[in-house]
Design a protein that fits this description.
There is one protein chain. By secondary structure, the chain is an all-beta fold. The chain folds into 2 domains: 60 residues, Beta Barrel (OB fold (Dihydrolipoamide Acetyltransferase, E2P)), CATH 2.40.50; 58 residues, Nucleic acid-binding proteins (OB fold (Dihydrolipoamide Acetyltransferase, E2P)), CATH 2.40.50.140. The protein contains 1 helix and 12 strands. The strands form 3 sheets. It has a 5-stranded antiparallel beta sheet with strand order 5-4-3-6-7. The chain has a 5-stranded antiparallel beta sheet with strand order 10-9-8-11-12, with no helix packed on it. A hairpin with a 5-residue loop joins β4 and β5.
């Protein structure tokens, strides 16, 4: 069986072929629910809601996921040998649009899009009818606009 394996610690990907009946040791990975509480200097602080222990990660460790982190957001933290190797965000997040160009009347019929900056600093392409102050739902895996949320 031909496979692609990704090393969570280094991020490297390698192709490997396994023979029928060959066994592979299972990695001892723990998945824990933690809440993103705040940012301390350049560290993102996640708190275990039962023990109140804090786990800190740098922006370089989190990568692009920092653009979707909001205070009090619950995330799944993957741990291996008591070391954090990844953070899984919720699939969707609701954020407020803090800056976008106004859509002109009649433009919405053409179905175009425009860039919008969110409260977390992320830039998302949104339909022309989305305005400053609107709440939008975004897919955190693809950074794609999904829908407008709340009262219009």
């Amino acid at each position: 069986m031909r496979t692609k394996l990704r090393n969570y610690v280094t991020g490297n990907t390698v192709e490997r072929t396994f023979r029928a009946g060959e066994q592979v040791d299972e990695a001892n990975i723990a998945k824990e629910a933690k809440q993103y509480t705040y940012m301390d200097a350049d560290q993102y602080v996640f708190m275990d809601m039962t023990t109140f222990e804090e786990t800190r990660m740098s922006a370089s460790e989190l990568g692009d996921k920092t653009k979707w982190l909001k205070e009090n957001m619950e995330c799944m933290v993957l741990m291996w040998n008591d070391k954090v190797i990844d953070v899984e965000l919720p699939i969707t997040v609701v954020v407020k649009v803090t800056q976008t160009d106004p859509g002109l009347k009649g433009d919405t019929a053409q179905g175009g899009s425009k860039p919008a900056t969110t409260e977390t600093g992320a830039v998302v392409n949104v339909p022309l009818f989305v305005n400053h102050g609107d709440m939008i739902q975004v897919d955190t895996r693809t950074s794609q606009y999904m829908s407008r949320v709340g009262a219009f």
